[in-house]
Specification:
mainly alpha, Serine Threonine Protein Phosphatase 5, Tetratricopeptide repeat, globular
Length: about 100
């Protein structure tokens, strides 16, 4: 909880610090506050559209919520930005397998 407050305070001081938004998303995710976590990642992406880690982690959370199509799109965007993003490739493969697409997964 303290880390969330610290991240929120940092955002208040420097609203466009993309890494703080990303870290806030991570902290919120750890507490199971997925909707707030999604908002933090989306804000990071809004500030820096080329932030592949924010897209990749957003994809994980969307998968956890059963929002598989959105999750696939987020992972694909992470890969588009950073083709060697191993975590995004792994996440995309898992999501495709969950959808029954064994060949692509």
């Amino acid at each position: 909880m303290e880390s969330i407050q610290a991240y929120q305070q940092a955002i208040h001081i420097q609203p466009k610090f993309v890494e703080v938004h990303n870290s806030l998303g991570n902290a919120l995710r750890e507490q199971g506050r997925l909707e707030k976590s999604i908002q933090a990642y989306q804000q990071a992406i809004h500030i820096q559209p080329g932030h592949s880690n924010a897209y990749s982690t957003l994809g994980i959370i969307l998968k956890e919520q059963g929002r598989l199509e959105e999750s696939i799109q987020a992972c694909q965007q992470a890969i588009h930005i950073q083709p060697d993003h191993a975590e995004a490739h792994k996440n995309l493969g898992i999501i495709l397998l969950l959808r029954g697409n064994l060949l692509q997964g």
